[in-house]
Write a structure and sequence with these properties.
392 residues; alpha/beta; 15% strand; globular; binds nicotinamide-adenine-dinucleotide; binds magnesium ion
Length: 392
């Protein structure tokens, strides 16, 4: 029986993970559930899954959660705060961790799970982008295993020999990430003036949290995924390409030197990747509808438009610059996206804030977590300053 910690249990990925877990009560148990502030949603999940431990990220919510679980007669222990998340990820209560917190807030617990040798189901791509070299070292030290949950990286994992990097030895020429193109695919820059948050989060193929939905609309999501692919599979920036595929059926492809191209296909439903990660190397039912190729009829592929969707180019720039550049890119993006969702920043200014923040920041080689936390904080302040100067 796998004992699973779901960090980000009340989110979109967390909900999909719990759906798969609930389908296989003989194989998987949700032993730890964690969320940020949503006391009622987390309590409802505790009533359903009876975990040993519930962690609430915001300490101000601890008493409310404890009272709510007590009133429901549950024996679930309650802890709170960022440190409690780290402890839970590394604790004996779980052998598997679903890292599904959004943003830099998930970094420390993701690293802790890797260091503790857990099976790490990694959805929290921001953690890889910020701290790729540290995550690699933590995985090596912990001796656990990483199963990518981002659908593209899960596809690549499935198409690579042993899911591994060292691409030259494996005869791999290129990793090809597919991108849906988001809700504004095909539009030009001048057609993106005045875009509202509600328009930006209305993704055509996937139901996701608001932050990643905006990232999909700017194509920063694909940029973060290029960086994620670099760190997960040890692929050079030039060996990672992006192709727009509006149907989101081909989740990504691996091109080999002999001309073979392997792809993983499926309906756009994150439960496939989560079931794969939970059961690997076996396969279990995920509740996902079978793919009906005849109903689909055709699959299309197009080149991305880097002049309109500048975030993708900025991500390649940060990847090539190396060191702390991806962490700076990520922090500036988180700040700009939050401001956009708040109605404080125009859609097109997201890329400008990120570029200005990268321009204004001196880069360093990545050393440790404390340095990256500081890098993240400083870049957030810089991004705020850039926003005030130019847009507010
Ligand atoms: P979401 O906004 O739906 O959920 C985020 C979860 O994180 C919530 O449970 C929230 O309570 C928790 N959280 C946020 N801040 C926290 C904090 N400070 N402490 C503790 N918990 C905190 O987001 P999502 O769409 O589920 O995405 C989660 C992660 O998975 C992101 O990194 C995203 O990029 C990645 N991802 C998501 C999808 C998808 O289909 N949704 C696909 C691929 C990758
Ligand atoms: Mg993805």
């Amino acid at each position: 029986m796998r004992q699973v910690a779901v960090l980000g249990a009340t989110g979109s990925i967390g909900g999909s993970a719990l759906d798969v877990i609930a389908r296989h009560p003989q194989r998987f148990r949700a032993s730890v559930l964690a969320a940020h502030r949503s006391v009622e949603a987390l309590a409802a999940l505790c009533e359903r899954f009876h975990p040993d431990l519930a962690v609430i990220g915001d300490p101000a919510c601890e008493e409310a959660l404890r009272a709510r679980l007590g009133a429901a007669g549950l024996a679930t222990r309650v802890t709170a705060g960022a440190e409690a998340l780290v402890e839970a990820a590394a604790s004996d209560r779980c052998d598997t961790v679903v890292a599904a917190i959004v943003g830099a807030a998930g970094l420390a617990s993701t690293l802790a799970a890797a260091r503790a040798g857990k099976r790490l189901l990694l959805a929290n791509k921001e953690a890889v982008v910020m701290a790729g070299p540290l995550l690699r070292a933590a995985l090596q030290a912990g001796g656990g295993e990483l199963l990518p949950i981002d659908s593209e990286h899960n596809a690549l994992f499935q198409c690579l020999p042993n899911g591994r990097g060292d691409l030259s030895g494996a005869g791999v020429r290129r990793l090809i990430l597919t991108a849906s193109g988001g809700p504004f695919r095909g539009r030009r820059r001048d057609e993106l003036v005045g875009i509202t948050p509600e328009q930006a989060v209305a993704h055509p193929n996937w139901r996701m949290g608001r932050k990643i939905s905006v990232d999909s609309a700017t194509l920063m999501n694909k940029g973060l995924e290029v960086i994620e692919a670099h760190f997960l599979f040890d692929a050079a920036p030039d060996a990672i390409d992006v192709v727009v595929h509006p149907q989101s059926i081909v989740h990504s492809l691996v091109e080999y030197t002999d001309g073979s191209v392997l792809a993983q296909l499926g309906n756009p439903d994150m439960r496939t990747a989560l079931a794969y990660g939970l059961a690997w190397p076996e396969r279990v039912a995920a509740g996902v509808a079978p793919l009906d190729l005849l109903a689909l009829g055709r699959l299309e592929f197009q080149a991305p438009d880097p002049d309109t969707f500048r975030c993708l180019a900025l991500a390649y720039r940060a990847l090539r610059a190396g060191g702390t550049a991806p962490a700076v890119l990520n922090a500036a993006n988180e700040v700009a996206v939050a401001a956009f969702l708040d109605g404080q920043l125009p859609f097109l200014a997201i890329a400008e804030v990120i570029e200005a923040t990268l321009d204004a920041t001196a880069l360093e080689p990545v050393r440790d977590l404390a340095q990256l936390v500081q890098t993240d904080l400083t870049a957030r302040h810089t991004a705020q300053r850039m926003m005030r100067r130019s847009f507010c």
